[in-house]
Request: fold
Amino acid sequence: MSESGDTVTGRGARAIEPERAAASPAYNAAIAMAFFRGAGKPQDAAPGTVLFSAGEKTAGLFSRDDRMYLVLEGEVVLQAGDYPLATVKAGELFGEMAAITHEPRTATAIALTRCRLIALDGRQFEQGLAQNPEFALMLMGVFSHRIRQTAAALGARGGAAGAPRAQKPAPVLDRTMMTGLRNLLRERTPARYAAGQTIFREGEAAAFMYVVSAGTVAILVRGHPIERVGPGGLFGEMAIVDQSPRSAAAQAETDCELMALNRNDFIALVRTSPSFGRALLRAMAARLAAITAQLA
Reply:
């Protein structure tokens, strides 16, 4: 991710080089190129042009400043102060973390050479997802790869991952999205779990993600609760992206009602409600940012 680690750790500390999206085995330049070309128009940037600055906060969904970028030609440098963190080259994207999460930019992006770029704002991004939902799956794969890598690094360090603190439930899907999801799955019986019942275990194979309709689910790593998911929240989403074994366990904290989605369900829902894909990406990006901050 271009911005996942654009952080300088305290005074006199060494800057952490950001992990570029293209560095992930899940990144597919052809999918990214097709998505950006279909959703936006190329623009030119002269050498030295500042595309965005560290500390800038995107104004929110559909604002002009809520942009992510793809480099068609040339190079863009990401830097903290005068310290270069990474160079983004043709076929690579950057600025996606802040654009999706609406958090402040964590690096300054400057055209290193004469560049040709495509910049997408929130509206263009959602319109693009309706036409090309595979881009959402690809970007989720990038987030998933980074989440797993960072969690493994924390575990090896024996730091925060050893005794994490469970977070309060936070909804990801609003009422409109939940209604659309129920309509999509109206012929299926919701999954119900009693308080204390295990939904899935760490290391298990998986094919579904879950959205909570009612109740609260605890997510556990090595038996420690790291997150609580309430109504409108979701979990287990990495399973539909990389089909890797579960990296955490899930247990019903109260009596729960859940909706289960497979990969085909996800694609169908992003096509009919691109805001769902954006909400899911925002949840994964926020999780990635949280655990990356622990490494910093």
